[in-house]
Amino acid sequence: MRAQFVLSEIGVGLRRNLTMTFAVIVSVALSLALFGGSLLMSDQVSTMKGYWYDKVNVSIFLCNKHDADSDVKCAKGAVTEDQKKQILSDLHKMPVVEKVAYESQDEAYKHYKEQFGNSPLAGSLTPDQMQESYRIKLKDPQKYQVIASAFNGRAGVQSVQDQKGILDNLFTLLNLMNRGALGVMALMLIVALLLIVNTVRVSAFSRRRETGIMRLVGASGFYIQAPFIAEAAVAGLIGGGVACVALVVGRYFTIDHGMALSTKLTLINFVGWDAVLTKLPLILATSVVMPSLAAFFALRKYLKV
User: Fold this and answer.
1) Taking the CA of residue 31 as centre, how many other CA atoms within 13 Å lie in the half-sphere pointing to its CB?
2) What is the distance between the alpha carbons of residues 218 and 137, in angstroms, rounded to a whole number?
3) I need a surface site. Which of 21, 28, 232, 254 has the fewest CB within 10 A?
């Protein structure tokens, strides 16, 4: 009988404040969708870091005969065979180095033609203008400075370049976007909490006569509060369900189908469905707990039951 009473009161409260209930559902859905999206973005950045940092190389570019006239670092002329052997020997002795690959001028020219064959400069370049290089795979990508300090300025070395620096700029941008999404999520969450508190207050005010009678007959505080807390929890749960649907649909249409980014951007290792599904229970739990707590504290202050 008590459960039936609570359920009937929930229905009455939701219908009586339909407009504000709808506003609560929408704001909770938006804030939790952004919350889930931010969690997925964080997972995506971590996945990309693990994927790309494992593939980055440090490149040691060697001087050629053309660099002698245009680059101070190569003023002594093109790299000699003895210098190349010494550089390779020193690289193999370094504990941070996992693997070393040599790229000749012909190989560098071939790779350039594959990547920039449509460039106007491609037709004017010849293989002897390209630079030989050593491509170094590090055991720890963070140890780039060890290679840079050991070979920058050495005879026959034109420059030492770290591909990780390029990736760091990309990941910094992604992290800033993620923080921006978290900021909007926090704002929407505050709006949702304010709406929940106001909805509970309006509902309590409209039923002040019933709650007053219940106090007079000795009803417990929790029994009086339960319908209001349950109303907020139900509205929040609906909003959480909408947020979950939005995340699933968003993942489906942006990555797998529709935009199909997984097929268009094959170089990006996108987060899988397991990452999405593990976020859904957290979103649903938050959608129930957050409104319930907001309603509980609002009732303690304004109903004084």
Assistant:
1) 26
2) 76
3) 254
